[in-house]
Design goal:
alpha/beta, 7-stranded mixed β-sheet, 4-stranded antiparallel β-sheet, binds pyridoxal-5'-phosphate
Amino acid sequence: MELIFEKSRVGRRASEIQGFDVPAVELDASLVRAEIDLPEVAEIDLVRHYTQLSRRNFGVDIGFYPLGSCTMKYNPKINEDMAKLAGFTEAHPYAPEAWSQGSLQLMFELEKDLREICGMDAFTLQPAAGAHGELTGVMLIKKYFEKRGEKRSKMLIPDAAHGTNPASSALCGYEIVSVKSNAEGGLDLDSLRELMTEEVAGLMLTNPNTLGLFERNITEVAKIVHAKGGLFYCDGANTNAYMGITRPGDLGFDVIQLNLHKSFSTPHGGGGPGSGPVGVKQILTDFLPVPRIELNDGVYSFVGDKPDSIGKMKAFYGNFGVMVKAFTYIRSLGAKGLKRAAENAVLNANYVMARLSPHFDVAYQRVCMHECVLTSEKQVRENGINTKDIAKRMIDYGIHPPTIYFPMIVHEAMMFEPTETESKETLDEFCDVMIEIAGEAKTNPQIIHDAPLTTPVNRLDEVKAAREPRVVYQK
Ligand SMILES: *Cc1c(COP(=O)(O)O)cnc(C)c1O
């Protein structure tokens, strides 16, 4: 396919300016920038260029997108409709509170819903992403110990954790201590008991963890952490596995961050806006970021006067549009609907695991939550085909590859999260493709080695673009 630069013809234009009604002046040469070599094309070439580029994108609106650990789930269009309402899009952060009562009410109510869903005492909506929520949560923990005059220097983090967990703790000055996983994919309790001392501020646990497994000993884990005065942090990026079924607050967690752009169905990716609200138990509420939203005598207001607050985590109040979408999702599903969404997410992941387990190795043979981890170790052993090859071949069948080689404690990992919105027919189509690929691995491994065969480009050198960026077109 021709590049837009190759389509360029000298003098071709998308538009022309007809005559000037002001006199021409000679420009000072020092003001004329070096000539930039932009393509010269007609309007239709430009339209086709960008339309064609847009069609090379793959998204959940185009096809199945089973990306594990990230919950790339379908965002119902009603969420967008609500976020598009002029009253929200034209709200200005400096508008007086009296003019912004609707927006304040929405945030107030969203906090209330999240409290109810998670069993926590208070929420802040300020953080802009999951990792930002983690940072906020760990800052709250740090402030708690400072207020108590306790010096604690370590944070415990399981070896299966998302990389942002150790990063957030390290940013707050904590030394990271890794806790091993056991053969079941849960936390090794003996190792936890040994490591949990009075030097430890807390444990950051992802539940369900990045293997898609619910921590079976969760209440015991909470007891071990609390017995030494530590705080129990929940990375709740994947709340969609249990919302409406169980509540982190009831399981013993003291702090949680949610990813509204995952569990609560607002689009993410490409660095777009996210939202990582943080929920806390009573012991931490005084430290929450300001401003807080309060309701007095039927009037909502921002309250900034909180002497123990860790301060502001984000300009204004956070990514408001994401909140509108998440609030719409929660209110349009209702309590029963949220629970059913979680049940279907879990059912779908287990269905995929059951159908694929005769063909691929399963990392942990137990009921999974919203995602399942399979491996291609069998294909590596028997056919010389690895996970990367399989992921590339999936593209030829019109399916977005899953998360691969993560979590790092599983060799040749392929992590599938079908999400709750996919029908049995779609899941079957997907499983049929995976089974077909497992068959090809035996009969025609070369085609998998060569995949993808249907895309504009084949296998890319994945580091070259970063090492040798070529940002200027050379004729
Ligand atoms: C996605 C994710 C994060 C990070 O969230 P961001 O919004 O990308 O910053 C943290 N922990 C877990 C378990 C996640 O899945």
